[in-house]
What we know:
Two copies of one chain form a homodimer.
Chain A: H1 13-24, H2 31-38, H3 43-57, H4 61-68, H5 71-81, H6 84-95, H7 103-112, H8 115-129, H9 133-140, H10 143-154, H11 165-180, H12 187-195, H13 198-212, H14 216-219, H15 227-240, H16 242-255, H17 261-271, H18 276-287, H19 291-298, H20 301-310
Helix pairs in contact in A: 1-2, 1-3, 2-20, 4-5, 5-17, 5-20, 6-7, 6-8, 7-10, 7-15, 9-10, 10-12, 11-13, 15-16, 16-17, 16-18
Amino acid sequence: MxxxxxxxxxxxxxxxxxxxxxAFAGWGTNEALIISILAHRNAAQxxxxxxxxxxxxxxDLLKALEKELSSDFERAVLLWTLVPAERDxxxxxxxxxxxxxxxxVIMEIGCTRSSHDLFxxxxxxxxxYKRSLEEDVAYHTSGDFRKLLVPLVSAxxxxxxxxxxxxxxxxxxxxxxxxxxxxxxxxxxIRIVTTRSKPQLNATLNHYNNEFGNAINKDLKANxxxxxxxxxxxxxxxxxxxxxxxxxxxxxxxxxxxxDEWALTRVVTTRAEVDMQRIKEGYxxxxxxxxxxxxxxxxxxxxxxxxxxxxxxxxA
Amino acid sequence: MxxxxxxxxxxxxxxxxxxxxxAFAGWGTNEALIISILAHRNAAQxxxxxxxxxxxxxxDLLKALEKELSSDFERAVLLWTLVPAERDxxxxxxxxxxxxxxxxVIMEIGCTRSSHDLFxxxxxxxxxYKRSLEEDVAYHTSGDFRKLLVPLVSAxxxxxxxxxxxxxxxxxxxxxxxxxxxxxxxxxxIRIVTTRSKPQLNATLNHYNNEFGNAINKDLKANxxxxxxxxxxxxxxxxxxxxxxxxxxxxxxxxxxxxDEWALTRVVTTRAEVDMQRIKEGYxxxxxxxxxxxxxxxxxxxxxxxxxxxxxxxxA
Lengths: 316, 316
């Protein structure tokens, strides 16, 4: 359930481009106009706007936006405007760079996109960076993190609903045994988490819970500060219950001393067209504050307006 | 360079189906007619024939062929008739089954198909087996073999010509160091072999040869009988010089006491539309016997005729 709202009658891409051009023209930029257009177009429409802009004005729309905008607002508009596969390729590439390295972003992309969408990210990555996604992830990670992240971004999981209950039982036992031995990066554990279909993994984890009395993520909390265990728990959450994971990322980003704008922008721009409605509901439930109010309290100006537009603030 | 020959004027799929139907009809089967049609149609044409056959007679062509044919000839016709992605999915699946397990076939598919073709195999695998290719490979392998094979079949290597010579130098050193330490399944070595683009890997191996005085596969022969080293050498050969690899598979299949028909059929059916011309040239050079004469000496009947048709016997 997306929170993106698109007007009932959408102007043509040419009209949108003309308006954007106006917003850029002269002294100062009309940020409100930019938001009123881009924050209310879906991925296909934004793609068409980019193509049309390029044809009409011989200039890349993203470059024009970069020139006109700045700071958090700029990042939110640029990330949002990119089509999903290119946005993910961009985020993943950033996450493999030294100063912006993030195992979390890589894990998120590997675990929460559909198999087909993840493949589109890998294609976009080739086109833009002349290397493969898994190549850069493998190069910029090591040890246990590499063992987990490379198969996560290389996976092409089966997506049918079929579940093998006998297998779920066997693999729940394997998981339990490895965790009891504190062999958290054991190759069997990694294999199960990184290759099984999401419904199959879910069945395995349900069986784990029923048979051994704890949810697996509770048993993976033996050492709550261990960075690898944190990532592994997050991966399991992303694979089985992504809305809950994203709710928590938002919660931590907003409650932090000094908001974590990167996380906030990332979650809002990547989920607004996917499951932001559910994330908002979960956020409200968990924090007793609606997400839009929390965002308003922590951000300001055009950046605030952009985020609120994307999460459907003011809609029925 | 393919060896497949397609007549200048190809009958319609409906006409081909009618002829095939005739070949199956009555007492006995007209094998020559089957060969004259199927062994001279490309993948797209064979696919259309399958679809047309199904529509016209409400029967699966492959099932009909299975009923009519037997033994090595049957396997050759069936494998050949399948479109490449489905054929590879079938071979890979077979290679993960207990009685037909083969790390070699899995490696071959992971290393010698283009990135896009390998992705098509993974899609075909989902459709046919309701699981993912990497899932089955991971489940049915273990230890060093799993460490090598899972990333090989999950890879989506970049295919552009760009080569980074500084990286080639650095990674040649890493490879040399790991091999000197006999750390043949070291994660850095596996990373380089399984994620780099083929041109990049080639540059690295050239540098290795120049700098350290031996081709890498020579240094990987420390223990010639070690099964993992054999597979690793073969993978490197497949990634850098697939025709040479396939020539050797054919050589060993034919020279064996009792021909290895499975290998022979696999190589001929999977390469006839790709690079069989080069494989044939290499075979002749290396064995001082043309491949068609070698095959004739080792096989007979319809099976022989089918293979010879596929490798372009009797063509200019």
